[in-house]
């Protein structure tokens, strides 16, 4: 299935999909894949010229593509049919919605059903969410993935519990936890919040699973409930930045034939070093260097609380692992 590449790319859920702008990225990516990957593989079709013409009209936004796209949704070639169903979403109408719902409900080809679901999403059809929830219970894994993507992009909290329930039967897919957080709880309910909190606080789970749940809670605005987990995670890249800063200062001193003999020299070198984002830790606090002895400095961060000389400070004098165990002992069994 060549159209699989198009549909799977469109359906791949990233954390960025919690944000706006997916539609524009999708339209641009679809046009590129159609022209460079799908159409070149269809040249052997008897009606290739017609198929190419319709898709080119669709990619250019020409309304004249709508009627022939509806016909192509029933094409015997699954690549053509699936791509047509997805592209038809560019041209919202009652007739197009009926055609796509018919394809979703009646076509036995999974890629065509995926394309229909994406087409309905693109035209903001009111039944899209309900059909996506229905697709979550289908045996086809690709169709399930499409349903998850559609629900996340709808950003409708009424579907949060359904997506969390789906996660509970697919616990190896931890990325779903952040997707659940993108939707959140329906008004008056806390089922999603409570479920994510239980996942985040279960110390028998892998840290990656707990962190995904914490990220989901942060998406919902409940990051304060799992601050320890989030801070523990931020500590690792922050510590890596400490190492970068310390190395950069020492290397800059060597390149200048300067011997670091005090804090003043260390501060000058830190200011001159090319550090980019490593100048700040993951809490957006500046990383400093402290003179230890001639030629030796230690990089430090004020840690989660942003205050110097407190218990949660990071330093290259201590490994990240030791810091995590010391500062967040309650996060370990």
Counting helices, strands and paired strands, the structural category is mainly alpha
Distance N to C terminus: 47 Å
CATH class of the largest domain: Mainly Alpha
Our estimate of the beta-strand percent is: under 5%
Task: Give a structural overview.
The protein has 333 residues and is mainly alpha-helical. It folds into 3 domains: 1-153, Leucine-rich Repeat Variant (Alpha Horseshoe); 156-221, no CATH class; 228-331, Glycoprotein, Type 4 Pilin (2-Layer Sandwich). 59% of the residues lie in helices and 4% in strands. The protein has 16 helices and 3 strands. Strands 1-2-3 form a 3-stranded antiparallel β-sheet. The longest helix has 29 residues, at 227-255. It is elongated, with a radius of gyration of 26 Å. Mean pLDDT is 92; it is low at 1-16.
In short:
The protein has helices at 3-11, 22-38, 48-59, 66-72, 78-88, 94-106, 110-122, 128-136, 141-154, 160-168, 175-183, 191-201, 207-220, 227-255, 263-272, 320-327, and strands spanning 288-293, 296-301, 314-315.
């Amino acid at each position: 299935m060549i159209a699989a590449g198009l549909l799977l790319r469109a359906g791949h859920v990233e954390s960025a999909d919690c944000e706006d702008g997916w539609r524009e990225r999708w339209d641009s990516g679809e046009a590129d894949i159609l022209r460079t990957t799908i159409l070149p593989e269809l040249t052997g079709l008897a009606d290739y010229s017609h198929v190419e013409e319709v898709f080119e009209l669709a990619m250019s936004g020409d309304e004249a593509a709508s009627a022939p796209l509806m016909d192509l949704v029933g094409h015997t070639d699954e690549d053509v049919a699936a791509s047509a169903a997805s592209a038809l979403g560019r041209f919202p109408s009652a007739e197009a919605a009926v055609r796509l719902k018919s394809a979703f409900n009646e076509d036995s080809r999974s890629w065509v059903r995926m394309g229909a679901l994406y087409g309905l999403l693109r035209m903001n059809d009111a039944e899209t969410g309900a059909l996506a929830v229905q697709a979550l219970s289908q045996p086809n894994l690709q169709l399930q993935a499409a349903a998850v993507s559609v629900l996340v992009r709808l950003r409708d909290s009424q579907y949060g519990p359904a997506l969390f329930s789906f996660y509970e039967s697919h616990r190896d897919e931890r990325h779903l936890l952040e997707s659940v957080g993108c939707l959140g709880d329906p008004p008056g309910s806390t089922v999603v919040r409570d479920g994510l909190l239980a996942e985040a606080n279960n110390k028998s789970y892998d840290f990656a699973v707990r962190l995904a749940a914490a990220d989901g809670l942060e998406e919902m605005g409940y990051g304060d409930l799992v601050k320890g987990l989030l801070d523990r995670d931020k500590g690792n890249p922050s510590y890596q930045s400490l190492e970068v800063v310390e190395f950069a200062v020492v290397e800059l001193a060597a390149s200048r034939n300067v011997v670091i003999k005090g804090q003043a020299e260390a501060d000058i070198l830190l200011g001159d070093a090319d550090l980019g984002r490593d100048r700040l830790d993951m809490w957006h606090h500046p990383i400093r260097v402290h003179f230890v002895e001639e030629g030796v400095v230690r990089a430090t961060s004020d840690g989660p609380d942003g205050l110097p000389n407190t218990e949660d400070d990071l330093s290259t004098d201590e490994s990240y692992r030791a810091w995590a165990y010391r500062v967040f002992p309650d996060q370990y069994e």
